[in-house]
Structure formats: structure tokens, C-alpha cells
Amino acid sequence: MGEAMRWRVGLEVKPARAAKFYMTLGLATLVGLLLNFVHFDPIRSLFIAAVINGVLAAPVMALMMLMERSHKIMGKFTVPVSLQIVGWAGTAAMFVASVAFIVSGIKWGK
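Given the sequence above, the corresponding C-alpha cells read:
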């Protein structure tokens, strides 16, 4: 977050020079501590995050495949056709896997 906001970041930087970084770090630590007291299940959260990641992977891969073909975006670094074929095959496989996962959950009522 700090780098995205162009703050001074890093534990080697003194707190006075990286106040926003240390405030964010402290806030994240406090949120983690508070989650411990509300009986937050981290393993279930990791599982849910992995499911969301798997379902969203196919659309993200499709967008990446479209961007990699664009000379406007990639310039001279566009991907050759052979790798585009492999990339689209992987994207299709991920899409099929996501649909199968969702259908299996519906089929078994979960």
C-alpha cells in the first residue's frame, strides 16, 4: 500500500520519516489482534480466498491474453502466436475448471 501511495516505506526507515507506513503497519496489526477476539477462523478465510481466486482466475487470464496481443499496450513485446495458443488453452482450461467447480457445488447442494 505504501509503495502504491508513494510513501516512504521500509522497516529500515525511521518512524519519523515513514509515519504513514508505520501507521498502516500498526493498524494492520491492531486489526489482526481484534480478529483474534471475535473468533475469526483464518483457515476458513484462506479457503474462501482460494475459491474466489480460482473463480476469478479465468477472467483475469482472458484480460491478460487480450492485453498481451495489443501493440498499444505491449509495444514490441507482444507475445508470439504459439504462446497465445498455449495461453488461451490455459485460460479455457481454467474457465472449464471454474464452471465444473460451481456446477459440482450446485449438484451436491453445497
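Residues 65 and 85 are 10 Å apart (CA to CA). Try to locate this feature in the C-alpha cell string yourself.
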